[in-house]
Write a structure and sequence with these properties.
Layout (H helix, E strand, L loop, with lengths): L3 E5 L4 H14 L2 E8 L7 H10 L4 E6 L1 H14 L11 H20 L3 E3 L8 H12 L4 E3 L1 H4 L4 H10 L13 E5 L2 E5 L28 E8 L2 E5 L2 E2 L2 H13 L5 E7 L5 E7 L1 H17 L2 H19 L6 H13 L5 E8 L2 E8 L7 H4 L12 H8 L1 H13 L1
Parallel strand pairs: 1-2, 1-4, 2-3, 4-5
Antiparallel strand pairs: 6-7, 7-12, 8-9, 8-13, 9-10, 11-12, 13-14
């Protein structure tokens, strides 16, 4: 049997043409693999058939929406994962899942290499290949767009010459990637960071400047996992889909950021992630009332590192695995309800309650019933500030 390569297949121009390109350049049979992570759009069966029509010897389609939500989005939510404090890792979270299935399919079908459609400028090439190296170290990764300098113009010519079943519509001015966690938009006029985004680029969110009545929703968490909206139980995937609709209606989750890419360049990116931003806001606030102070403070430092590791393509690294263990341990008491007000592009926490809450009204109140012994504060401050006092005396003596 001829050698095979498994291609991460989107159904678009580059990966459709990539089937023939890979075969011509390597002499290998191409197996196309498409993953459904909630990106919407075309029917996955149509995408599967297109790969065969473009020359793939086999075409595999995987419905991974629930797995994506359970095993990738839930850990990201537990970590309150925001790269550079703002980006909820929309694309970065899907890449290790796709890579997992690339390796799995390659092993099942006897392929000795995998391929993807990334360029040499972006983060995704690193994410795919680092994940493949971790899961299938014997496999070779091929990137035809990057390694063979295959431009869009060449792709269009190739498709026409080979009568491939791909519509050659006018090139979109944007590069778009999306899944159920959010949507990423770049290139075109957005490459000038002075240019404001226009309303036409958005799909998951409505214009937040339009006046609408606020919606209030109550999100229920169990050990850090969102399980219900207004008392109605839902799976993680259903939670994300529902919150995309509820929060997206109010323009929640629009992000415009100049991002530090892994490859060393800065890139202007526009994202919309209504469910991600709303759920992270709710989850973080529930942690504020259920986590012990120093545990909560330390977790905030690890959240940033977790986001950086995932952004940098190190989902399967030892450090991330260790941080995951810490985060999972913190979530045992993160159960309760958070009330969110959705309006004008914001998800604002207006209420919180939990049987695991560490908030003690009798200690917090300034009114009658206060059980906090204020007489202890003076001695506490004396001891707390003692190192500073001793150090200051030494410095003054030196003067």
């Amino acid at each position: 049997m001829a050698e095979r390569v498994v291609l991460a297949y989107s159904g678009g121009l580059d990966t459709s043409v990539g089937i023939g390109w890979l075969k011509d350049a390597t002499g290998k049979e191409v197996v196309a693999m498409a993953i459904d992570v909630g990106q919407g759009g075309e029917n996955m069966e149509d995408i599967r058939q297109r790969a065969l029509d473009c020359g793939a010897v086999e075409s595999v389609v995987v419905d991974a929406k629930d797995e994506f939500a359970n095993d990738y989005l839930v850990p990201a939510l537990k970590a309150n994962a925001l790269y550079q404090k703002r980006y909820p890792l929309v694309s970065a979270l899907s890449r290790p899942l796709i890579a997992k299935y690339l390796v799995k399919t390659a092993n099942e079908l006897g392929a000795n290499s995998v391929a993807h459609g990334c360029t040499g400028k972006g983060n995704d090439q690193v994410r795919f290949e680092a994940a493949v190296a971790a899961l299938g170290p014997e496999l070779t990764s091929i990137a035809p767009v990057r390694d063979l300098a295959l431009t869009r113009d060449k792709a269009i010519v190739y498709a026409q010459e080979h009568n491939l079943p791909i519509e050659q519509s006018k090139k979109s001015p944007y590069s778009i990637d999306k899944n159920v966690w959010g949507r990423a938009v770049e290139t075109g006029f957005l490459e000038d960071p002075w240019n404001p985004p226009i309303e036409d680029i958005y799909e998951y969110t409505q214009d937040p400047s339009i006046t609408r009545d606020a919606d209030e929703v109550t999100i229920t968490f169990e050990q850090g996992v969102p399980v219900a909206i207004d008392g109605e139980r839902k799976t993680p995937l259903e939670m994300v889909v529902a919150m995309n609709e509820l929060a997206g209606r109010h323009g929640v989750g629009r992000i415009d950021i100049v991002e530090d890419r892994l490859v060393g360049i800065k890139s202007r990116e526009v994202y919309e992630a209504p469910a991600a931003i709303a759920l992270i806001e709710a989850h973080e606030e529930l942690e504020n009332v259920t986590l012990e102070r120093d545990q909560n403070r330390f977790k905030r430092t690890l959240e940033s590192k977790w986001a950086e590791l995932v952004y940098d393509g190190l989902w399967f690294s030892g450090l991330k695995r260790s941080i995951d263990a810490f985060i999972d341990d913190t979530q045992q008491y993160v159960s309760g309800d958070i009330r969110l007000k959705l309006q004008g592009g914001r998800a604002v926490v207006t209420g919180r309650r939990s049987e695991q809450s560490l908030y003690d009204f009798s200690l917090a109140t300034y009114d009658t019933g206060d059980t906090f012994d204020q007489s202890l504060a003076k001695g506490f401050i004396e001891l707390w500030s003692l190192p500073s006092r001793i150090s200051a005396r030494r410095e003054l003596a030196g003067d």
